[in-house]
Amino acid sequence: xxxxxxxxxxxxxxxxxxxxxxxEHGxxxEHGxxxxxxxxSFSPEQAKAAGLQVTKLQASExxxxxxxxxxxxxxxxxxATVSATMAGVISFxxxxxxxxxxxxxxxxxxRISAANMADGNPxxxxxxxxxAARTALDRAERLAKDQIISAREL
Length: 154
Fold this sequence. Notes:
Elements (H helix, E strand, L loop, with lengths): L1 H9 L11 H4 L18 H7 L38 E4 L17 E4 L8 H24 L9
Antiparallel strand pairs: 1-2
């Protein structure tokens, strides 16, 4: 039966002269076919012999599961490179990140801590220097106000 179906499916598309069999198919155009090159037509007799049935399409539930594998990749240019502005130990900000996980703009992904680094935390050192400079400025302003130091020294 499968062999018969294959023969019927290819009957109109085999490499032979279509003009020779135009009348046996009942086709009328100059190439012997009323259908396009990618179309296969069956006479009622051919359809019956092949066991073809025509039914009206109806919406119904699709319950068949097809297991496949694949990988979803981002569109070109949709990836971003993240780099740290200081040295330190990196840890996940919340939980764990996995390949392909969705993230929002501005969402913290990692935390960088230099507390256990040999040179210490450069951010904390800069913060301490800033505080010391502010304290020195405040003191110099008080001394200049009391005329203990000159405005030029301030």
